[in-house]
User: What shape does this take?
Amino acid sequence: EGFHYYFIYVDGVAMPDPGAQTFFGTARWISGIEIPSPVTEDSFYEIKDVPHGEVRSVLYFSKVTGKWRRCFVYTPPGYATQPQKKYPILYIMPGYGEDETGWFTQGRGNIILDNLIAARTAVPMVIVTEDQFTALKPGEAPLVLGGRRAGGARPNFGTYGQTFTQVLFEDLIPFMESHYRILPGRENRAMAGLSMGGMQTFITTLPHLDKFAYIGGFSPGVPQA
Assistant: This one.
């Protein structure tokens, strides 16, 4: 059961399956297949007959990178029909080799939150996913598969993650709080991530506990000293 990446070999070359949907994972576009589990009352990631939120692809300009960037924004059920209500926000980061699409495609983050809100085990909130691996300043080389910068040695990920931290504080948080109905202040702001996204969360939040009240790391990497 669960979601699995796979590829096929053609003359020794690993390729996506041309007859299947592709997903961005393992730092490339790759085929994926999901083996469903039986739907039960506690199937928190299956679509159920509950109110559903919306996911949108949103462009914003980053002064830090000098480029337009894309994030995905989940707004909870009732966001469009309750124009006076404001919400807490969760910034959630992908694992290494995935991008801003992963939490809502492979991860079903919106479906999970729909179900948790309906069960009253989570408060309605806005979720933002971004891709910390593409947050590059002009002239800064990207990471490549295997954890090395193109043409260079293995970087200190703690130093690397500071670029996205700067994007988050200077660009993304101001954009979200000016374009969406977001409750201000640390008590209404959370950040979490998977694997290297968990490490990005620690790099960003631990030196700035005055800005985040909730932190989550799922199988997180550990920042280098």
Observations:
- The chain has three helices and 13 strands.
- The two ends are 38 Å apart (CA to CA).
